[in-house]
Amino acid sequence: MHDFIYVTKKESMPVKKELIRLINEVQNLVRQNFTFRFDFVGSSKRNMVTYDRKSNIGYDFDVNIEVNDDNEKYSPDKIRSIIMAAINKVVSKYGYDFCEDSTSVLTIKVKNTARSRIMHSCDFAIVYNCENGDQQYIRFNKDNQNYTWEYRGKGIADLSQKIEWIKRNKLWNELKDYYIEKKNNNTNPQKHSRSIFAETVNEICQKNNY
Questions:
Q1: How far is residue 161's CA from residue 123's CA, in Å, rounded to a whole number?
Q2: Whole-angstrom Cα distance, residue 29 to residue 83?
Q3: For the chain, which domains are there?
Q4: Quick check: 157 pLDDT over 70?
Q5: Given the DSSP bridges, would you call strands 146-151 and 135-141 parallel, antiparallel or unpaired?
Q6: Angle subtended by helix axes 193-207 and 159-168, to nearest 10
Q7: Are 126 and 83 in contact (CB under 8 A)?
Q8: 29 to each of 43, 136, 192, how far by Cα in Å?
Q9: What is the pTM of this model?
Q10: How many Cβ atoms sit within 10 Å of the Cβ of residue 25?
Q11: pLDDT in the model for residue 113
Q12: Do 25 and 90 meet the contact criterion of CB atoms below 8 Å apart?
């Protein structure tokens, strides 16, 4: 059994504002190569950041970085290496460790080493939003040690419309309560928060005759 609770805005907003300053510095560092826009996505966009009081992982933010490289001047490995190098130049002043390079994201973490605890972290995905609504991201293929653009899965159909319907019908607090309940009862370590959230949206809609 987990013990997830929501992180309050009072706690999360200073960290989010600091991350924005960090990202702005990265934008300035890479400007000679390319520009990029960024968006907080997932739970940090919805103000539904959670953490498990029984774990030592803390809470995290998710950010999409969309590089302006319409002429495809840069290869995916070059884009990722430029951004990672820029992030690594500024992280220490904000208390983060250097980037961890995983399959789909670059991750930075603030750690309390004395307590062997991750206080909070941020995952950066480098993406390209296609005109047809699909999204690609730069994937690190660890077996081959190379980087490629890959398409994301389609996700849940009509998810954004269902979220708007839930908000219009004043069911958002019910959704938040049920989402926490589902996270706390989740026994599948392979089931990520985005999947639990999508399930929660669908079940709230079904229950309330969407």
A1: 26
A2: 9
A3: 4-151 (3.30.460.90), 159-207 (no CATH)
A4: no
A5: antiparallel
A6: 50
A7: yes
A8: 28, 24, 33
A9: 0.92
A10: 17
A11: 85
A12: yes
- 50 and 180 Cβ atoms separated by less than 8 Å: yes
Residue 30 in contact with residue 36, Cβ under 8 Å?
yes
* Helix residue ranges per DSSP H, 113-158: none
Maximum distance among all Cα pairs of the chain, rounded to whole angstroms: 53
Amino acid occupying residue 59: Y
Angle between helices 172-185 and 193-207 (to 10 degrees): 130
* CA dihedral for 162, 165, 167, 172, sign (positive or negative): negative
What lies within 8 Å, CB to CB, of 4 at 6+ separation is 50, 51, 52, 53, 180, 183, 184
Q: What percent of the chain has pLDDT over 70?
A: 98
106 DSSP β-pair partners: 101, 124
Helices (H), the chain: 9-30, 76-90, 159-168, 172-185, 193-207
With tokens 């950066």, the residue in question is: 124
What is the CB-side half-sphere exposure of residue 89 using CA atoms within 13 A? 14
Residue 116 CB contacts under 8 Å (≥ 6 apart), including other chains: 56
**Is a pLDDT exceeding 80 seen at residue 154?**
no
As a whole number of angstroms, the distance between CA 114 and CA 107 comes to 21
Q: Are 61 and 54 in contact (CB under 8 A)?
A: no
DSSP state for residue 55 in the 8-state scheme: S
